Amino acid sequence: MSPPGATALIAEDEPLLAMSLQAELAILWPELRVLAQVGHGEAAVAQALALRPDLVFLDIRMPGLGGIEAAQAIGEDWPDDQNLPLLVFVTAYDQYALQAFEHAAIDYVLKPVRPDRLAKTCARLQAVLAARDAAHAPDSIESALGQLRSLLAATGIAAPAAPPLTVIQASVGATIHMVPIADVLYFEASDKYIRVMTAAREYLIRISLRQLLAQLDPRIYWQIHRGTVVRSDAVAAALRDESGRVQLKLRERPELLSVSRLYAHLFKPM
User: Fold this and answer.
1) Cα 257 to the chain's mean position, in Å?
2) What domains sit in the chain, N to C, each tagged with a CATH number?
3) What angle do CA 219, 223, 229 make, to 5 degrees?
4) Tens of pLDDT, residues 74-110
5) Most exposed among 48, 72, 143, 259, judged by the fewest C-beta atoms under 10 Å?
C-alpha cells in the first residue's frame, strides 16, 4: 500500500526531463505530492531543508553542486530528530556510478527514465516509507549517513587519483609562496577558493576541494565537513557537546573546527 501523504522534491537541470519525471510519477504514484522542481544543486539543498520532503530525486550533473554533493550537504544539515529523505539519483548510464549506488544501497534511475524501471523504484520507496510509518519512530540516522559515506567513498564518484602534493603554490600579489604540505593544518572551501591555513598565516588557492582531496593522503588529511579538510595530527582534542556535535581543538591555532555528522564517526575513543 502506498504511504499516505508522501512528498518529493525533484532536482533536475533539464526542464523537459523534470516535467517528464513528474508526469510519470503522477501515473505510477498518484498520492505522491511533488513539492517543488529545482534546476541546480544549491536550490536542491535549500528547498530540501525548507520543505522536508520524504523523497529527493537528484540529477547527478547539475550547475553548481552536483547531485552527490547536494546529497552530502542535505545529510550534513538535516535536523537530528527527523528521518533523512530517501535519495534517488537520476543519471545517464555510467558503469562506475551505478556500481557506487548499488554498493551504497542507494536507488537510481537512468535517463531517459523508463516507466517500468521507475515503477520498481517507486515500489521500493513505498515499502521503506511504509516500514517507517509502521515503526512510528525515526530510522537510525547513522544508517542513512552510512549509505552516504559509502557513496562518497565509492569508486567512480571521487576525483581520479593524482600525484600527491608535497608543496602548495599560493599566489600572493606578484609572489608565489611555496608552502610545504606538512605545514598546512587545514583547508577550508570559501566561494571559488580554498583557504590554506598554516600555524602562522592564511593563503588562498583556486582549486576545487574535490580536486584537492585527490592529491592528499587520506591517512593524514581527513575530511570533516563538505568544505573542510584537517591534518589529523594537528588536532589536539575532539570536543563533543550535549547534542552530540563535535568540534576540533587544534594544537597551533585558536579557532575550533566543526565536524559534520557524516564524519563524526572518525573521532571515537580507541
Assistant:
1) 18
2) 7-153 (3.40.50.2300), 167-266 (2.40.50.1020)
3) 100
4) 988 888 788 889 999 998 877 767 877 887 778 889 9
5) 143
